[in-house]
Amino acid sequence: MSSTYGKNIRISIFGQSHSEAVGVVVDGLPSGFRPDLDELRRFMDRRAPGKNSYSTPRKEADAPEFLSGLNGGVTCGAPLVALIRSKDTRSADYSNLKDVPRPGHADFTAQLKYKGAQDVAGGGHFSGRLTAPLCVAGGICLQILKSKGIEIGAHIASIGNIRDVRFDASSVGRADFHLLRGAAFPVLDEARGAQMLTAIEQARKDGDSLGGVIECAVTGVPGGLGDPMFDGMENRIAGIVFGIPAVKGIEFGSGFGGTSLRGSDNNDSFYMDGGRVRTRTNNHGGILGGITSGMPIVFRAAVKPTPSIAKEQYSVSLSGKSNVRMTIKGRHDPCIVPRAVPVVEAAAAVAVLDALLDGNKYQ
Amino acid sequence: MSSTYGKNIRISIFGQSHSEAVGVVVDGLPSGFRPDLDELRRFMDRRAPGKNSYSTPRKEADAPEFLSGLNGGVTCGAPLVALIRSKDTRSADYSNLKDVPRPGHADFTAQLKYKGAQDVAGGGHFSGRLTAPLCVAGGICLQILKSKGIEIGAHIASIGNIRDVRFDASSVGRADFHLLRGAAFPVLDEARGAQMLTAIEQARKDGDSLGGVIECAVTGVPGGLGDPMFDGMENRIAGIVFGIPAVKGIEFGSGFGGTSLRGSDNNDSFYMDGGRVRTRTNNHGGILGGITSGMPIVFRAAVKPTPSIAKEQYSVSLSGKSNVRMTIKGRHDPCIVPRAVPVVEAAAAVAVLDALLDGNKYQ
Amino acid sequence: MSSTYGKNIRISIFGQSHSEAVGVVVDGLPSGFRPDLDELRRFMDRRAPGKNSYSTPRKEADAPEFLSGLNGGVTCGAPLVALIRSKDTRSADYSNLKDVPRPGHADFTAQLKYKGAQDVAGGGHFSGRLTAPLCVAGGICLQILKSKGIEIGAHIASIGNIRDVRFDASSVGRADFHLLRGAAFPVLDEARGAQMLTAIEQARKDGDSLGGVIECAVTGVPGGLGDPMFDGMENRIAGIVFGIPAVKGIEFGSGFGGTSLRGSDNNDSFYMDGGRVRTRTNNHGGILGGITSGMPIVFRAAVKPTPSIAKEQYSVSLSGKSNVRMTIKGRHDPCIVPRAVPVVEAAAAVAVLDALLDGNKYQ
Amino acid sequence: MSSTYGKNIRISIFGQSHSEAVGVVVDGLPSGFRPDLDELRRFMDRRAPGKNSYSTPRKEADAPEFLSGLNGGVTCGAPLVALIRSKDTRSADYSNLKDVPRPGHADFTAQLKYKGAQDVAGGGHFSGRLTAPLCVAGGICLQILKSKGIEIGAHIASIGNIRDVRFDASSVGRADFHLLRGAAFPVLDEARGAQMLTAIEQARKDGDSLGGVIECAVTGVPGGLGDPMFDGMENRIAGIVFGIPAVKGIEFGSGFGGTSLRGSDNNDSFYMDGGRVRTRTNNHGGILGGITSGMPIVFRAAVKPTPSIAKEQYSVSLSGKSNVRMTIKGRHDPCIVPRAVPVVEAAAAVAVLDALLDGNKYQ
């Protein structure tokens, strides 16, 4: 099994990079909700390729086609299905990949699993293109959450060694999110953003690539969501965020950095704030024991450098059982982190809405 | 829902810190396997408290009592159930926790979710004591994996700011694991280990606590395990490891550090090694596209500093809606990282065996 | 996987007939509920063996021991675990079953699946004894449902060829249930009940056994529970009722009999009843399109004749690969239908409470 | 949640009767399989409407369009998606259904669940049209099963009061299936079939409808598939078959009829048949303790009379809170049983292939 997620909202993503279409089934959406399709298009545009020098020039018409689940533009309770047709594919670019797997890609592991039947063109089902339908699903979930006072925003926390400032985990909110959503390159500190862009451009010129970290926050979350142990909010968010290709790590609140603190510094003091319990700091990232505290959920995802690079690399010929050199042709982002920002938001939205629909949330 | 994990092997953990017993149901174990109960006891002993100055002096008789699932000492196909009876509990220590939640603990979020019905004694179902039955389940899975040539080992990668050397991700193996399993304090570099112990002792004296990072490796894993997107090995391992209390982050292979590398450095070159495809480096941590490559799986989990500290802290009185100071009484580890090492191994074992039993692994 | 059921309430049943204990984990119960243990005991007693001539004289002390999940007698949100210790077992009776499987039992199929490692004593995990923990789980669910105005009752609809009258599907309710729960032999028509008892006694004398049908009704169910297609209430109830050993069929509303009606007779006319929509008849058994209508849920389960009979039967020796005659020793009910009545109620209770806790029920 | 089924093969069905398309995602199909699309079309044709006087004259172009999951005509491991575009719909026929629900349909229960947002046209997501994508999924599963020696066939066991002969449960096989697949009206006894057709024609003339029973057999099933209790083959098959609209009952082997037998008659004697264990009779329907015995799986599904009839019926006006008379316009099958025969085969195919892919089947 593979590409399904969720308990109350179940998304099932399908398609290969160069198949006729990619898409998603979203089962379990509350009925009676009217998605704002313009807002969804704007959200999708933040992920779309071909906008600038650091993203692939391949053009996608990412406008989703809704086949079912809407009735008069309103969710009707039946599974919602959105298709994104493929255009402008060049399968010929990939003809050699079954024999010579690209380093850092899933070509080799797909070969092991599917014994040569896998669709290698463009990475097949492992392609970053599959994040487009995730954005359709997540984009609608974002709108539903917003209608309930829950908002999600994310920014580029680092590109290579260059770090943006972090969210203020205790006070992050709507103002930050509004600015970030409108930005061509979503960072909190524009000067750092400029440095990042320079580094990306340099990597592109070098035929190389860069990775980075995305920081995401969810505000307005009611306390009491999630469950202990294996169905906690950390497990659930990690369970969907690791579905985004190239994510190799996730941390909540103070995360790995928090392991260098002493307990007296990492513990978040409770205090009363006008009748509501809050914490002074938010090293717990809004989650204690798997359950939300009502403070913002804050997490960071590590995105590895794009494995597709123009530089020559070492690989093997599976048929010849020999070592070979190989060069990847085609067009690739020198850094996918900027385009992955809305994808992380989308993933978080699905996980949070799924938890919000848990029958046991108001025990 | 909460404390169940797995698709082919399903574990269901139960109990509260001070309930009559904690335990686990393990459904789906292959039949006909004879667990080595002495080896299991030795494995459990690595987690057991009360062994030294950095762990709580509470005595546990962690020897599991098997109620079902074994027939003549051999797994019979029926769900295996193991109980660990509670002894030496002092519930009186916790009487005030419903009103004044401990910073960094789940007391407050449990209150939100369960509306005052939660069992607060010793942290209830959120207690680290629940990792004992996880070790029973994982300990048996480890033995089954070993019989198939798959081994799992882990060490303390850091305590506070003091770092052990890392596993050599490409060549980690049995020799490392053997040493680590026999060590009272499992590190690769004993000098660093001594520094860590000093730091822990200092934290204890200061009425404070320390966190750390645990690195875990799985060797002998066949290629082709796991699925794309949401059922990849990273998702699955994260899904169980975040079930260990105090884990706030996980990263695979080069992880967060890999985001500072360029693609040409982070990509792992393939080469032929006596007819078998391997990678020169292992920045991918044995997983590409969610699917195992045959290289060792390597991941690190961030463990936050023990939230229970002797120092006075700030909290609130939920009944009085006022800010209060509070001091946690009772006995607590100044650092739970050493005892969490076998727990991480256990969690990895369950996830890997679950994947190994996937019907589609040999597509 | 096997013995787990449910999405919001997850029950996981364990044990073998002659293992040290059988039991159940119930995860997801609403917190803050105080089970009435006396009422639970009375419910369990309806299933208990040894009460009369048509049930096995084996004595069970079916009083469950609660290990966790209760705090001060109230559900605390953590998984509830109940054990029933085994007593009075005679494993020696079953020593030959690995070689000579009993007709109509799971001995042979367990042998195929578990390759000789299965626990054959008393039927192992396939024993009817596993319905005792199902009754613990279901008994508590019944109490929770009752607190929400939902009641469940069942009666013996037939034994062999002797049929009780059926529930009036449109008006079945509390009065019927009250009488049935208090009856030693739960039928609506006592004269038919007397005939059934005579038939059972005759079968016992003949060294033979009888089957029958159990009819179950659930009243007070709100409309709108369940989902279309594969997660409808029929699918869900069937999914748990077929977990009761010996059940070989299930039908809802007019069921198989309804296939002989014309649409104009089988369709249930809607009418207004004091501002509420009801149906004149209830051939739909309270479920249309998988979703509850607010009319009583009515279903019937077919229970095959007890496969354990005293008469000589034909089987095979698996080791000798030869045909043999065999006689089953030990003590067995000539008819398990009466004892299965509360088990069917318990199963229905778990399914209905699980649906009631669906996050999407109030879309 | 609703329209997903399966553990190893996961099908997710989408669409409404009059939405732009209906379709299915099939995740988990073994890779490297080349579906025979001509054979699939012939299978789909058996379900297609408009062929004769007892089925609706609405024309469907049920040829599925494959969007993903195939690469060069071969399954590539990625989720397979098939669409069936809608044509020839007349939504105007259904405009009044939100206010006046049709007896026997899901109009009323959908109203309760989706609060007026449901798509009523043609029954929306509850329409029998959703069985077309189930046939696509099941048709491919049938082909995969056939390649492993497993075949599935079904016939009309009864229409109204007219009964076909039953399968010989012990010897049913390829010859029967071959004849049935080629028949316009699949019965074993053609004389009975002729009577059934007459009865259907009479019901049509009367503006009424008929129900019936479908009997299905699966041959070549290896022993040892399925699990005890809640994941047995009966539970699994029931779990998908109740997803077919209008199914109100299911029974395995001797089923409800078997409850009238004594144990000595209902038990199936084992015997050696050339080194293989078989049973003389097959009252157990190929399943004991939830696990396959290697004998044919045999089950029967009860299909209620088509609720759409031309006769005037009684219903309510939900807006007016009053009783009303209503007449259903549009075109409807007087008996859907013949068209449901391949749907039952398809459902069985998905359940059996799903079980065959269980990782634990060769414990």
From TrEMBL, chains A, B, C, D:
<keyword id="KW-0521">NADP</keyword>
<feature type="binding site">
    <location>
        <begin position="304"/>
        <end position="308"/>
    </location>
    <ligand>
        <name>FMN</name>
    </ligand>
</feature>
<feature type="binding site">
    <location>
        <position position="47"/>
    </location>
    <ligand>
        <name>NADP(+)</name>
    </ligand>
</feature>
<dbReference type="GO" id="GO:0004107">
    <property type="term" value="F:chorismate synthase activity"/>
</dbReference>
<comment type="function">
    <text>This reaction introduces a second double bond into the aromatic ring system.</text>
</comment>
<keyword id="KW-0057">Aromatic amino acid biosynthesis</keyword>
<keyword id="KW-0028">Amino-acid biosynthesis</keyword>
<dbReference type="InterPro" id="IPR035904">
    <property type="entry name" value="Chorismate_synth_AroC_sf"/>
</dbReference>
<dbReference type="GO" id="GO:0010181">
    <property type="term" value="F:FMN binding"/>
</dbReference>
<dbReference type="GO" id="GO:0005829">
    <property type="term" value="C:cytosol"/>
</dbReference>
<comment type="pathway">
    <text>Metabolic intermediate biosynthesis; chorismate biosynthesis; chorismate from D-erythrose 4-phosphate and phosphoenolpyruvate: step 7/7.</text>
</comment>
<feature type="binding site">
    <location>
        <position position="289"/>
    </location>
    <ligand>
        <name>FMN</name>
    </ligand>
</feature>
<keyword id="KW-0288">FMN</keyword>
<protein>
    <recommendedName>
        <fullName>Chorismate synthase</fullName>
        <ecNumber>4.2.3.5</ecNumber>
    </recommendedName>
</protein>
<keyword id="KW-0274">FAD</keyword>
<keyword id="KW-0285">Flavoprotein</keyword>
<dbReference type="Pfam" id="PF01264">
    <property type="entry name" value="Chorismate_synt"/>
</dbReference>
<feature type="binding site">
    <location>
        <begin position="125"/>
        <end position="127"/>
    </location>
    <ligand>
        <name>FMN</name>
    </ligand>
</feature>
<dbReference type="GO" id="GO:0009073">
    <property type="term" value="P:aromatic amino acid family biosynthetic process"/>
</dbReference>
<comment type="similarity">
    <text>Belongs to the chorismate synthase family.</text>
</comment>
<dbReference type="InterPro" id="IPR020541">
    <property type="entry name" value="Chorismate_synthase_CS"/>
</dbReference>
<feature type="binding site">
    <location>
        <position position="331"/>
    </location>
    <ligand>
        <name>FMN</name>
    </ligand>
</feature>
<comment type="subunit">
    <text>Homotetramer.</text>
</comment>
<keyword id="KW-0456">Lyase</keyword>
<dbReference type="GO" id="GO:0008652">
    <property type="term" value="P:amino acid biosynthetic process"/>
</dbReference>
<dbReference type="InterPro" id="IPR000453">
    <property type="entry name" value="Chorismate_synth"/>
</dbReference>
<dbReference type="GO" id="GO:0009423">
    <property type="term" value="P:chorismate biosynthetic process"/>
</dbReference>
